[in-house]
Each structure stands twice: as structure tokens, then as C-alpha cells.
Design goal:
By secondary structure, this protein is of the alpha/beta class. The chain contains eleven helices and 17 strands. The longest helix has 20 residues. It is globular, with a radius of gyration of 21 Å.
């Protein structure tokens, strides 16, 4: 079928079958527990989702899929997911190009459920597409872990089988405001801007009152249309208001373009924090325009989650360390992982943990196991709300904040700048 690309990564009893959309260089992951067990029965476990191979979400969606595929390879190399009854599950993935379109997401998730009859579902990337997929999975009584959606509203619909790995959008810019005021308490005027989509709107809906509660004067609070490429009129309005800081944004393409045009027009705000785009490694391709830009991130390679932090939180640790994940990702893909990459891998780990805890692929047992998950991963802590209205919403994961800075060699690199106890460098004001 035109526009549809199918990828699979599976292990037959005798060996590894390569995925259609990428090579396989499997490396060890955390293995399931158990030494003496009943006779092994190997089963294939098919996980379905869509990827935005085209459209405005293609860059970050690709990163998420890379994380999922790496998890599949790691589990395969480790011998599969081992259940208590001796069954070994070998994961394989099946995904299609959703073209970054909600109607296509709904058609394809319907196909994954009814025609492909996949065993489990992961989400597309971006809150709008996640919401579209969630409607279909709920209508069909299927479970889905969302690897790439942070919108609060989606997770406040009373869904029964949707589980959010990302910290909600309402948390995204709160820490950025705290960082900004710690860095420069003289900042008084702030412009809050956002793409007109559900995720970005949920972020600024929380950031605006929080900024005001900190005594800041919000001199601009305005949105721009999805797909905007010429921000000059918008930036002129911001400049006229004379803000000390600019926070907000949307996704990768608009955020990257906005940052570049802010630089080109020499907007002299002392602090700029943008959603999504700065956390993508290719953001540095805009050169000096990337310097000093702060971005909220679900995870960074410098994250310090470990067995020790898990013990301090009184929860188990599961899966690879941040360094192990990062090293394996770089070895396979040749670039640093973004938080979208980590989200894809973390979603796989959440499913793996639930399967091991449930000891079964039975949907009711698997859902009960997901409800009970409270675990520390390389990605951070994961736990889900059990309230009826917000069931499945992420309640334990925290954001971190990174900034593009130039090192002594003059090259741009990301530094973890907040929270302070995890920082790899001091944050810097724009010059």
C-alpha cells in the first residue's frame, strides 16, 4: 500500500530476523529474573504503533521509533521477556507512516487492531496524534502506553487503558521560570508564546499563572498557527513589548525556525526557553542562534537516575543505566539520544515490566500490573494516576532543563542546567 512502511524485528527460535527499517546490532539489556523455570515456550508478541515518517512531526517521531527499536533489539539479545510460567515473549514491531495526520492515525490504529491483530499498542509521537490514537484504543477496549504525548487534557478524559510515560505538559515551563529567576532575579517582563495546539496550549495554561504568581509581568500572551514559517510579524509584536524573557513555543520545526528568526532580528531578551526543539540534537544546526536557548526535557544523557536514587525513593530499579542506554544508542544510530528517543525506549521498558509483573499477556492482568507500576528507569521514575478522571496520567516523572552552550573549543553542546543538584554547568544569560 502506498505510503505505508512496515517494520519488524523478531527473534525466531534459531536466530534474529533484521527489522525492515533498520539494521540490528543487539546488545545486552536487563534480563528478566528467574533461574530454574518450567520448560520454555517461545511466543511472538507484536507491538503496533504509527510513526510520522513525513509531515511536521517527522524528526522527533523518528527519534521515538529509534528508541522503541533499540529496546526490541536489547530484549531480543537478552533472550526475550520471561514470564513466570516459562513462556518467553519475543517482541516484534509493526508500524505505519501516519504522515503527522490525526485522521490517518485513527485509520491506522483501527487497522492495527482489527486487521493486523497486534498484541499491544504504543502511541504515535505528539499530543494531538496520541489523543487521536487514544480514542480508537479506548473504543476497542485496548491498552496503550503513550511514548510521546504530554498533553494534560488528553489524560483527563477518564480513559481506562491509556498510560502516559511523559511528565504532563503543565510541568514543562514551571522549572524554566524557577531557573530564570534564580539566574537573574531582576527579570520582570516576560512574553509567553505558543503554537496553537493542545500540547503547547496546556503548557502555557500552567506557565502563565505561575509566572504571575512569581511577580512577573506577562507583556505578551499569544499563540501562532501550526505550520507558521515566517515569525517576523509575531517577533515584531514581541519586540515592541520589550520583554526581558521569552518562553513557550511548540514543536521541533516551528521552535527551530522561531529561534533562528529571534537571533536574526537581534531580539535582546536575556532568557529564552522553548519547548521540544532545543532538546533535539540537530537543533545545533542553526548555529549561533542555538546558543543560550534553554529547553525543558523529559530526559538528558547526563541524567543521574540509578539504583541508588531508586533506593532513596523506595522503588525498584529496572533496565539499563543512563550511560548504558546512551552508549548503545550512539553505537547504533551515530548520534546522541534525544528525550524522544528515551521516551520510546522507556515505553518499551514499562510494557516489559508490566508483562513480567503480570506473568501473562492477558489484558486484564496486564492492566492491573500497569496500574501498580512504580519504578525507577534510566529515564526517571514512572507511576500512573489511578483516579477515575485522570487514570493513566503520569504522576512521578520530573522534567529537567538543558541549555545550548559553547565550550572552550567554541563548539555548541548541551548542558544540564536545572535542577541545580543535577546540573552539569551553570545556566547562562543570552548576550
Amino acid at each position: 500500500m502506498r505510503g505505508i512502511r512496515l517494520a519488524a524485528a523478531a527473534l525466531a527460535v534459531a536466530g534474529l530476523v533484521a527489522a525492515a527499517c533498520g539494521g540490528t546490532t543487539p546488545t545486552p539489556a536487563s534480563s528478566a529474573s528467574g533461574s530454574s523455570a518450567p520448560a520454555t515456550q517461545t511466543k511472538t508478541f507484536t507491538i503496533g504503533f504509527t510513526q510520522s515518517q513525513t509531515g511536521n512531526q517527522n524528526v522527533t517521531s523518528k527519534r521515538q521509533t529509534e528508541g522503541i527499536q533499540l529496546w526490541v533489539e536489547d530484549v531480543t539479545k537478552a533472550g526475550g521477556i520471561k514470564l513466570k510460567d516459562g513462556t518467553v515473549l519475543m517482541p516484534q514491531v509493526k508500524f505505519y507512516d501516519d504522515e503527522s495526520k490525526t485522521d490517518r492515525v485513527q485509520a491506522l490504529y483501527t487497522r492495527l487492531i482489527n486487521d493486523d491483530k497486534v498484541d499491544f499498542l504504543l502511541s504515535p509521537y505528539s499530543s494531538g496524534l496520541v489523543k487521536a490514537a487514544a480514542v480508537i484504543t479506548e473504543q476497542n477496549g485496548r491498552l496503550m502506553v503513550t511514548a510521546g504525548g504530554a498533553d494534560d487534557v488528553t489524560m483527563e478524559q477518564g480513559f481506562k487503558g491509556v498510560y502516559q510515560v511523559y511528565a504532563p505538559g503543565s510541568k514543562y515551563l514551571i522549572g524554566a521560570i524557577d531557573l530564570m529567576l534564580k539566574l537573574d532575579p531582576t527579570i520582570k517582563k516576560v512574553a509567553i508564546v505558543n503554537e496553537k495546539d493542545s500540547f503547547s496550549a496546556s503548557v502555557v495554561a500552567a506557565a502563565n499563572p505561575y509566572a504571575k504568581s512569581k511577580g512577573l509581568d506577562v507583556v505578551v500572551a499569544e499563540g501562532y498557527d501550526t505550520g507558521t514559517t515566517d515569525f517576523n510579524p509575531f517577533i515584531n509584536k514581541i519586540q515592541a513589548a520589550g520583554p526581558d524573557a521569552i518562553i513557550g513555543g511548540g514543536h521541533f520545526e516551528d521552535g527551530t525556525t522561531f529561534a533562528k528568526q529571534l537571533f536574526d532580528k537581534r531580539v535582546n531578551a536575556r532568557f529564552v526557553a522553548l519547548l521540544v526543539a532545543p532538546a533535539e540534537p540537530t537543533f545545533k544546526d542553526i548555529g549561533d542562534a542555538a546558543q543560550f536557548i534553554v529547553g525543558p526535557s523529559q530526559w538528558e544523557p547526563a541524567a543521574k537516575y540509578s539504583a541508588e536514587t531508586a533506593k532513596a525513593a523506595n522503588v525498584p530499579y529496572f533496565g539499563p543505566t543512563p550511560k548504558e542506554f546512551t552508549d548503545r544508542y550512539v553505537a547504533k544510530y551515530g548520534s546522541q539520544p534525544s528525550y524522544q528517543s528515551s521516551g520510546g525506549y522507556a515505553a518499551g521498558l514499562v510494557l516489559q515490566k508490566a508483562l513480567e509483573d503480570a506473568g501473562s499477556t492477558d489484558p486484564q492482568k496486564l492492566q492491573a500490573a500497569l496500574d501498580k507500576i512504580d519504578v525507577m528507569l534510566f529515564y526517571g521514575r514512572v507511576k500512573f494516576s489511578l483516579d477515575a478522571k485522570t487514570h493513566g496520567k503520569q504522576i512521578a516523572h520530573d522534567m529537567v532543563y538543558m541549555q545550548w552552550q559553547k565550550g572552550s573549543d567554541g563548539k555548541l553542546a548541551t548542558q544540564l542546567v536545572w535542577p541545580q543538584d543535577a546540573a552539569t554547568a551553570q545556566a547562562q544569560l543570552r548576550k
